[in-house]
Design the sequence.
């Protein structure tokens, strides 16, 4: 092979060496054009973002691979949880994890191999193949987080999914990545305009208080966070470098500080991208307003819509938790709850179930208790009826008995509207008592 | 249990020994003006989004439309060619 031939081999993209037929190459060319992959090929910041997002998939699947919350056995043992919009998800579980089987292990080893392949394609600078392979990881994660189970969630996963959608499929990737990053701060502020953050009782109700700051300073700190999320975050997009750098410094400090409480997971989804998009190589990106950008703007609108689902449901979603998980919900309230039920069997016997929350971060969602009770009702034909009480306190306020029913088996749960059996203040729920200071841990 | 009179503590098993929450003077002050503060934050939130959408999306789009109406494409092309 002479030097000229050698040169041409080096220049041939990896995909064209693997997929040699005409229709395959035609498909890949169309794919590259349709998803604006040339933007990734020509923008180092997007290439770094690609790597940062890949890291989040590794961390997510590292965690998922060791759990059993979406396995056949979880379903059989009634140790699973579906989303309110797909309450029969467990019937479709098909994986088994150790000690019961290997299928989940095989799946996550396959996904690990895909991650390795992506690293290889990035090294070969074939962003079309990298894009295709990341799509595989994305679809599985999206399915698990929003459909397969409600136990694989967490707002950090929402961040990963939102940024991946933009990076993979939208045009004006860099602009919309930056905008969505800031928009998520702005939307997160909506859950903080509430007693727990304005009075700072989320943290003063913790036995350990806010890290580093004394308790008496807490309301200043929490209101400053609200201010920065509503106003300060937008300066991350500024063309005035002093303001941009001040905002960046604040949000780096904010994420490092919150890492003291939430540890690495949330930081992994936010800090690398924050530094890549707004760090040393930041340049102001103009606002795209042509036809091609419409899809990106619609996606931003969609984020608004989801954030407002809980706010459109009657009642305080921090207390009822209705619609809570459809938008960002991190640190929405400091929860304590007690759920107790009595199962009456047809033969006249009865037994009691009692459970208390274990941490301020446990969401105390009546839906979760309702879901478990419903599974009992469906599975055990000896059950005649189940009485159920659910007492919930937020941010150090009184325990309210927001559910008190003699027949929990007869209740339905609607995901997007208020469920009448959850008592609102207008229904005068009984006050059971007052809580003591809570603890926060994983 | 009487809803309006109970002050009983409900202590979860893992919280034995903890004190109940007591508000600090600053929190008591904020609590007095709580509804006003909530209204202020929401007003700021809405104002920010209205301003940003107007300044960065609606006005530029209207301006473009105005320019397009005043200078249709063929006119501009003719001028450029001349």
Sequence:
């Amino acid at each position: 092979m002479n030097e000229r031939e050698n040169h041409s081999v080096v220049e041939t993209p990896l995909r064209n060496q693997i997929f040699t037929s005409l229709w395959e190459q035609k498909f890949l060319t169309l794919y590259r054009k349709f998803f604006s992959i040339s933007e990734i090929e020509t923008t180092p910041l997007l290439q770094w973002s690609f790597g940062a997002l890949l890291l989040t998939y590794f961390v997510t699947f590292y965690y998922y691979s060791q759990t059993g919350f979406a396995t056949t056995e979880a379903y059989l043992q009634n140790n699973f949880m579906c989303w309110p919009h797909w309450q029969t998800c467990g019937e479709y579980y098909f994986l088994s994890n150790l000690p019961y089987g290997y299928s989940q292990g095989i799946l996550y080893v396959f996904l690990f191999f895909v991650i390795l392949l992506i690293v290889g394609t990035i090294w070969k600078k074939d962003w079309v193949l990298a894009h295709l392979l990341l799509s595989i990881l994305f679809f599985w994660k999206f399915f698990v987080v929003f459909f397969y189970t409600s136990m694989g969630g967490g707002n950090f996963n929402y961040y990963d999914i939102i940024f991946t959608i933009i990076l993979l499929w939208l045009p004006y990737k860099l602009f919309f990545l930056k905008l969505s990053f800031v928009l998520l701060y702005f939307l997160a502020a909506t859950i903080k305009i509430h007693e727990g953050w304005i009075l700072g009782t989320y943290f003063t109700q913790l036995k350990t208080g806010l890290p580093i700051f004394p308790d008496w300073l807490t309301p200043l700190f929490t209101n400053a966070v609200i201010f920065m999320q509503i106003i300060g975050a937008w300066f991350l997009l500024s063309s005035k470098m002093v303001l941009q750098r001040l905002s960046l410094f604040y949000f780096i400090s904010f994420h490092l500080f919150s890492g003291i409480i939430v540890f690495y997971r949330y930081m992994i989804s936010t800090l690398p991208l924050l530094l890549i998009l707004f760090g040393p190589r930041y340049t102001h990106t103009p606002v795209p307003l042509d036809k091609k950008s419409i899809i990106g703007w619609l996606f931003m609108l969609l984020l608004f819509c989801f954030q407002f689902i809980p706010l459109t449901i009657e009642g305080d979603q921090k207390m009822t938790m209705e619609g809570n998980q459809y938008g960002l919900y991190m640190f929405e309230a400091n929860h304590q709850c007690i759920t107790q039920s009595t199962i009456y069997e047809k033969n006249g016997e009865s037994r009691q179930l009692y459970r208390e929350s274990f941490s301020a971060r446990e969401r105390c969602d009546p839906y979760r208790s309702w879901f478990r009770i419903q599974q009992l009702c469906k599975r055990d034909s000896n059950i005649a009826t189940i009485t159920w009480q659910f007492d919930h306190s937020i941010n150090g306020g009184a325990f309210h008995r927001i559910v008190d029913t003699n027949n929990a088996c007869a209740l339905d749960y609607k995901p997007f509207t208020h469920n009448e059996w959850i008592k609102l203040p207008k229904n005068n729920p009984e006050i059971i008592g007052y809580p003591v200071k809570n603890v926060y841990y994983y | 249990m009487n809803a309006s009179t109970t002050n009983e503590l409900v202590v979860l098993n893992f919280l034995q020994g903890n004190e109940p929450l007591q508000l600090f003077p600053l929190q008591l002050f904020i609590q007095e003006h709580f509804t006003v503060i909530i209204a202020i934050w929401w007003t700021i939130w809405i104002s920010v989004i209205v301003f940003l959408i107007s300044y960065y999306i609606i006005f530029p789009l209207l301006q473009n439309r105005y320019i397009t109406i005043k200078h249709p494409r063929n006119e501009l092309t003719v001028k450029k060619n001349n």
About this structure: The CA atoms of residues 44 and 50 of chain B lie 10 Å apart.
